[in-house]
Amino acid sequence: MTKIDVYCKNCNSAKTVKAGKNQLKSNSVGVQRYRCQICGKYFQMTYKAIGRLPEMKEKIVDMCSNGSGIRDTARVLKVSTKTVINTIKKACKLLKWAD
Fold first, then answer.
1. pTM given for the model
2. Which of 20, 85, 86, 92 is close enough to 97 for a disulfide, judged by CB 3.0 to 4.6 Å?
3. How many CB atoms sit inside 10 A of residue 86's CB?
4. Which residues are CB-contacts of 36 (< 8 A; sequence separation ≥ 6)?
5. 64 and 84 in contact (C-beta within 8 Å)?
6. Distances in Å between the alpha carbon of 41 and those of 62, 65, 70?
7. What residues pair up with 21 in beta bridges, in sequence order?
8. Residue 29 gets which letter from DSSP?
9. Angle between helices 54-65 and 81-95 in degrees, nearest 10
């Protein structure tokens, strides 16, 4: 069995550990999750839904902060409006803009 080096997508550290699996409706096996021991972030090697990609979340926040509306952002990035709304809410909580 070969060992695959897994690097954190946030800080590029090689200090990662397995952290369970995400069960998918279409795949009974699940997708392996990892946790970085340096920054504490959880990630997967592959994502099925494009709305879950960290890069997509950054694009959503960038577009909304530059004046794009929710429906416009969803249409351009080909994600649902619910994904855009949830991502903005989480970003606001992180930035302490929300009450």
1. 0.59
2. 92
3. 14
4. 8, 10, 11, 13, 15, 16, 42, 43
5. yes
6. 21, 24, 27
7. 32
8. S
9. 80
pLDDT digits (tens, 9 = 90+) for 66-98: 999 999 999 999 999 999 999 998 888 877 754
* Residue at 35: amino acid letter: R
pLDDT of residue 95: 77
Tokens of 93: 């909580």
- Residue identified by tokens 């959880």 is 42
Q: For the chain, where are the alpha helices, taking DSSP H only? A: 54-65, 70-77, 81-95
Signed CA dihedral, 48, 49, 52, 55: sign only: positive
Domain range summary for the chain, segments of one domain joined by +: 1-48, 50-95
78 backbone φψ class: left, alpha, beta (φ>0; ψ -120 to 50): left
